[in-house]
Write a structure and sequence with these properties.
The chain is an alpha/beta fold. The protein is built from 11 helices and 12 strands.
């Protein structure tokens, strides 16, 4: 298999790898971490910096070109700036992003940009401090300071992410769009997924993308855009431009969009070394034995075995039962 033809059994090109570097987090988001979660990985169970760099080297040789550092909260990992630099220096890495809650970004945005990080996705579920605290348990002011620091650092792209929750933050949708537009950042809205709890799919909790778009249409004209032309991103999100405000809005509708999985080009590595072909399928492949006792060919074989089992579609609607919370899978 050549370095440019890595594909799932149905022909989808798979060239995007998300790397969780910790399952620890300094917030407690309702949709990500169960109350009382204490499953923090011990040091010996977590991939080392050298192991992460080695698996990126193997993945790049297979054709993975786009990478995202995730958590938990990746900025909690010691030496995260140095690890970022080492990943960026691997030949074949063309894009390196990070997903963060932004709490520690104020001090680290500049060093991360200098280390090669291309962009950041920052979770921003509300602009009302009380609602934000209800969702995350955190301090909104620190996140906003982190976003300002990221803007000053000159990242190629800063995206803001909001998870939609009925009865919690639907009134925040338009303020978030205006906030993002004023900073020329795409604002992305994400449907709840039953990664931590299945009751998020109840009508009392679940807020679909279609309903969110109707809120936007009440304020502005919503025009679909071709993300390849605007060089917006690497995942399955769809994007719209709002005519009057100029806002760029992305939607990630894993539960209600019928063609969502057709656009999936990614796999995930958890902080404890499990390779996951699909976020919405509990199937995992253990990279640890190959990384700690094998050679690069053994690591390659794990990747190829996982790729061969990449499902046609996630199982969120019907059969998925949460086995690990989102914080332990990787955002």
């Amino acid at each position: 298999m050549s370095a440019t033809s890595l594909a799932a059994p149905d022909g989808r090109v798979v060239d995007y790898l998300r790397l969780s570097v910790t399952d620890r987090c300094n917030e407690r988001c309702l949709y990500c971490m169960p109350e009382g979660y204490k499953g923090w990985q011990s040091r010996e169970d977590t991939l080392t910096d050298d192991e992460i760099v080695r698996l990126v080297q193997v993945a790049a040789g297979l054709g993975f070109r786009k990478y995202r550092i995730t958590g938990g909260e990746p900025l909690l990992r010691r030496n995260i700036v140095d690890l970022t630099r080492r990943i960026w220096d691997v030949p074949g890495v063309e894009m390196l992003g990070m997903s963060t809650n932004g709490v520690m970004l104020e001090k680290l945005a500049g060093p991360l940009r200098q280390a090669g990080l291309c962009g950041v996705n920052v979770s921003l579920d509300a602009l009302n401090p009380e609602i934000y605290h209800r969702v995350t348990g955190g301090d909104l002011s620190r996140v906003l300071a982190g976003i300002d620091a990221a803007l000053a650092a000159g990242f190629e792209r800063i995206k803001l992410n909001c998870v939609l929750m009925r009865g919690v933050n639907e009134q925040e949708i338009w303020p978030l769009v205006e906030y993002a537009a004023a900073r020329d950042c795409p604002m992305r809205f994400i449907e709840l997924m039953p990664l931590t709890r299945r009751d998020v799919l109840d009508e009392s909790n679940f807020f679909p993308i279609a309903e969110m778009l109707e809120i936007l249409r009440a304020q502005d004209e919503v025009i679909p855009v071709e993300k390849d032309k605007e060089k917006i991103g690497n995942g399955p999100a769809r994007y719209y431009r709002l005519k009057k405000t100029g806002a760029l809005v992305g939607v990630i509708g894993a539960l209600t969009e019928t063609c969502f999985c057709d656009r999936c080009n990614k796999m995930r590595v958890t902080a404890d070394g499990k390779l996951r072909p699909c976020l919405g399928d509990a199937l995992e492949f253990d990279l640890m034995p190959a990384l700690r006792g094998g050679n690069d060919a053994d690591v390659t074989n794990v990747f190829l075995a996982a790729l061969a089992k990449k499902p046609l579609a996630h199982g969120f609607k019907d059969v998925y039962q949460p086995a690990r919370p989102m914080t332990a899978i990787g955002g």
